[in-house]
Amino acid sequence: MSVDVGSVAPDFTLPDQDRHPVTLSAQRGRPVVLAFFPAAFSSVCTKELCTFRDQLARLNSASAQVYGLSVDTFFALKAFHTDQKLSFPLLSDFNKQVIRDYGVFNEDMIGLKGIAKRAVFVLDKDGVVRHREVLDDARNEPDYQKVFDALA
């Protein structure tokens, strides 16, 4: 399954790094950025999430809520969140349902089976997908300018 621009984003509830449940539909009324990433503490994932952290002022000006999502446990995400001083929640899709629902399930990345592809979805205040970028090569980062443009 794939989530395309113009469709309503599938709802989900996942635990954040502090084990608090986060429900996507509870964010209606504000834009949301969903940043799927393969693995906490990997170099490109760290760079990507730190870029979102460092650009939070631009995201806040659009009243956007950012979430990082991976299949890492909330234990690993807590350590990553703390280590990188991230200022937005990281969500654990340990059971791999959300990455399937969004069409970003990576069957095999250099021997790591069933992790998230690097992908970014921008949702408007009604939960409609306004930007979608799914990268086949996890060594690449998303086009951040397109994320900011979609929020504008």
Account of the protein in words:
- This protein has 152 residues and is of the alpha/beta class.
- The protein has one domain: Glutaredoxin, CATH 3.40.30.
- The protein is 27% helix and 23% strand.
- The chain has five helices and nine strands.
- Strand 8 (119-123) and strand 9 (129-134) form a beta hairpin.
Brief summary of the model shown:
By secondary structure, the chain is an alpha/beta fold.
CATH homology group: Glutaredoxin
How many whole angstroms does the radius of gyration measure?
14 Å
Strand residue content: 15-25%
Give the oligomeric state. Answer: single chain
Mean pLDDT: 90
What ranges have pLDDT less than 50 throughout 5 or more consecutive residues?
none
